[in-house]
Protein 1
Amino acid sequence: MAKLTNFERLSIQMEAVVPIIRSLQETFGEAAVTDALAARQQRRVIETQPTTEPDFSRMAEGTKFFAAGDALDYDIIASTDASFDMNVTNCRYAEMMEKLGARDIGHLLVCGGDFAAARRIGMELTRTQTRMQGADHCDFRYRPLTATDD
């Protein structure tokens, strides 16, 4: 059996999850469910403990995991021992959520996990915009976690 890319795996998950979330929104209201999803993402970040020291030398290679299968087009803006900056210029994750009629919640279901993932590897992610939410690119900026981030 062929190994699935991250994009393929997430596509399968979203095909199952999106109808459930839409049903919950019909039952409890769109705002209540969206607020609950946002709170869940914030809890994940807060509860995630770093499992490793930040290793910025591996970021370019690690990005390929999420981009596999032409899921992302991106430009690495800067890569140093203490930072990694990239812009995603094309995102099939956003296109997939659009096809599912769920781009409005895609930043919570798909993009939001990036912050906990960064924290797990000892980094802080700052991102001010996403393709999922209609921007022309996603701006990923990674730095080491600081004492105030814990």
Protein 2
Amino acid sequence: MRTLLTDAVRTLLPRGEERHGPLPPLLLTMTVVTGLVDSVSYLALGHVFVANMTGNVVFLGFALGGAESLSALASVVSMTAFLLGALAGGRLGTRFAMHRGHLLRAATAVQTMLVAVTVVVAAVADGRVTTSVQYTLIVFLGLAMGLQNAVARRLGVPDLTTTVLTLTLTGLAADSTPAGGEAPRPGRRILSVLAMFLGALVGAALLLHGHLVLVLSLILVLLAVTSVTSHFLSAADAPWLRPRP
């Protein structure tokens, strides 16, 4: 328990000499964003995911197999947008390959702009999700999440992919002491799970009361804060800014 708590504290409040510096708490914030985004896509946009592509592939199979509550078109559009976003994230990763702070700042700035479009569209529609609003939000959120996934992958902070928890949960069990493992980073892994859970919980609670614009605005604020924070933290020449070995 002591190891778990110590690891959790060091994840939330990293010390100056930490290899990844302030990246863990910033990526945890983006993990909360993922929970919020997928609550929007699943609960408000017709049972589709824009961050969890494993779910989308399965949904596509269900839809093509005749499940009437699912849309094959929505899944295809979401996956296409996600892949385009990941492509853009890969290009950003190449451009800022030598500076992780600038990479995160640029990525979250682009995400902020993409999500800003969804806020405007939802606000103009007064929260009503017509077909045009549905697909506009799927495309722009899918682009944002594909970008986020690619950049988190390039940043390479262990157990903080921001969008995928399957391996994180597997690691919690498979690497645990009862399994004969050394249980590395248990606090970080649990915080990652809790962050996405928190985003999904808050998003669902707001969406089920008709607050689509509010949820999108919350996503916008979290990404903007992450981008601005990354900008200021990147000013110094700290070891964490350099690409991982």
